[in-house]
């Protein structure tokens, strides 16, 4: 009797430790293979399994929408998600851990960029196969990637710089309208701007340049805030940036050649999933390099103690202005993508609600962290879509979650953590080791 009662907890604890250790040895590449296997399984077996379990259709967002709309289908939905996603990901990633470790070790012998590109190719392939089953998934994925760009760019200002800016929706609006005007005027026949000024076939090839110009327009707009506000200290940036948001929104509403309050529509369909994914990847890479650079370290010094940073020969005003314009540029690029994903834009899309959503993503995920910005943007974007059937109650649940995070994790879920690509893609153990 003593043997049974004494050994069971120890055996249980040992099993948990072993399981945790085994899962920790699985490299990112194996997890990506497992995710791709699950997506392929859903593509070919999902409709039949959904029909067998009595589900009306394949769950488009991991079953959350079905659960909230039809609670009686919770058991069937849980079984579907477990059989299609849970078990295949665990089994495939565990079985392929050893070859994945060998491949990861081999790739790291060459340039890091090659390893990163291979990981990105598998990641994008998984996302493409998953989203290709539903137009709703494609739209949700595009908007989530744009949210990641917005959150990262705002974190540069509110997190790494330590200021509080409320102008990101205005920068996004400037980028969205600048990109829309250029594509509608130059590459589309539009009732607002008339015949296209350039051949329509050039549009997709010129779209990257359009987005760069949209980002530049947003950065120029940021100068209107940066020049007066960075001569002062304290909360003046928050006040000036909030005023700038209202000015931009009101200005667009009263410019008839921009569509006024009706907005602009019929933007060309240039923002495909590969395009949005490529820009989001570039944004993560460039912002991560920026915050880890000498300028990024100077930005942290300014945040921690501006007087001390100034005494150590850091040009605090120039550092803050560069960071502010840099964040505004990427908000403008995100705005241009947003306008061409929805193919419609109006001033109402860039108000206080949009500001609240982006701020929530930044502070929920974590300040001073690229990881945190990605986690905050993805989790709140998907949570917002998952809770859509609850309608009004959605805006009660999400704020309550944010309040709890602010109480127990004031700096966010993943704060002050560097994004190290090498640690992310390196093998978990010696590939010759028995897995």
Describe the structure.
The protein is mainly α and 435 residues long. The protein folds into 2 domains: 2-131, no CATH class; 135-423, ABC transporter involved in vitamin B12 uptake, BtuC. The chain contains 18 helices and 2 strands. A two-stranded antiparallel sheet has the order 1-2. The radius of gyration is 24 Å and the shape is globular. 38% of the residues are buried.
Strand content: under 5%
Shape label: globular
Query: How many strand segments?
Result: 2
Helix tally equals 18
The biggest beta sheet reads:
2 strands, antiparallel
Uncertain spans: 1-6, 431-435
Question: Roughly how much helix do the residues carry, as a percent range?
Answer: over 70%
Give the CA-CA distance, first to last residue: 36 Å
Count of spatially separate domains: 2
Order of helices and strands: HHHHHHHHHHEHHHHEHHHH
Report the C-alpha radius of gyration, rounded.
Answer: 24 Å
Overall mean pLDDT stands at 87
- Which CATH class of the largest domain? Mainly Alpha
Structural class: mainly alpha
- Order the strands across the largest sheet as they lie in space: 1-2
CATH topology title of the largest domain? ABC transporter involved in vitamin B12 uptake, BtuC
The CATH architecture term of the largest domain is Orthogonal Bundle
């Amino acid at each position: 009797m003593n043997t049974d009662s004494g050994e069971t907890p120890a055996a249980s604890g040992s099993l948990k430790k072993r399981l945790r250790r085994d899962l920790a040895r699985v490299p990112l590449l194996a997890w990506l293979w497992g995710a791709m296997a699950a997506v392929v399984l859903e593509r070919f077996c999902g409709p039949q399994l959904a029909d067998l379990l009595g589900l009306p259709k394949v769950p488009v967002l991991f079953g959350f929408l079905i659960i909230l709309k039809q609670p009686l289908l919770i058991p069937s939905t849980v079984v579907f998600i477990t059989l299609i996603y849970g078990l295949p990901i665990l089994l495939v990633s565990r079985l392929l851990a050893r070859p994945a470790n060998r491949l990861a070790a081999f790739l790291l012998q060459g340039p890091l960029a090659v390893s990163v590109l291979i990981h990105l190719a598998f990641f994008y392939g998984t996302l493409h196969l998953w989203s290709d089953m539903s137009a709703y998934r494609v739209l949700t994925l595009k908007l989530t990637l744009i949210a990641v760009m917005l959150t990262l760019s705002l974190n540069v200002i509110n997190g790494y710089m330590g200021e509080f800016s409320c102008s990101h929706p205005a920068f996004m609006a400037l980028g969205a309208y600048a990109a829309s005007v250029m594509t509608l005027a130059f590459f589309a026949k539009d009732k607002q701007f008339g015949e296209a000024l350039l051949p329509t076939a050039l549009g997709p090839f010129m779209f990257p340049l359009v987005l760069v110009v949209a980002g530049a327009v947003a950065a120029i707009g940021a100068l209107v805030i940066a020049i007066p506000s960075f001569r002062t200290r304290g909360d003046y940036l928050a006040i000036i940036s909030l005023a700038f948001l209202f000015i931009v929104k009101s200005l667009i509403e009263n410019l008839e050649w921009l569509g006024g309050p009706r907005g602009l529509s019929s933007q060309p369909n240039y923002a495909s999933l590969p395009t949005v994914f490529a820009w989001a990847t570039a944004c993560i890479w460039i912002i991560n390099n920026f915050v880890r650079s000498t300028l990024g370290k100077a930005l942290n010094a300014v945040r921690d103690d501006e007087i001390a940073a100034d005494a150590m020969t850091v040009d605090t005003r120039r550092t803050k202005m560069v960071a502010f314009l840099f964040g505004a540029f990427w908000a403008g690029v995100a705005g241009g993508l947003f306008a061409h994903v929805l193919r419609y834009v109006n001033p109402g899309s860039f108000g206080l609600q949009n500001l609240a959503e982006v701020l929530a993503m930044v502070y929920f995920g974590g300040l001073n962290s690229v990881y945190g910005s990605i986690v905050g943007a993805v989790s709140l974007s998907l949570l917002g879509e998952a809770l859509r059937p609850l309608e009004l109650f959605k805006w009660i649940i999400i704020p309550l979650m944010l309040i709890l995070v602010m109480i127990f994790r004031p700096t966010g879920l993943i704060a002050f953590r560097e994004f190290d690509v090498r640690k992310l893609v390196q093998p978990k153990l010696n590939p010759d080791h028995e897995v």
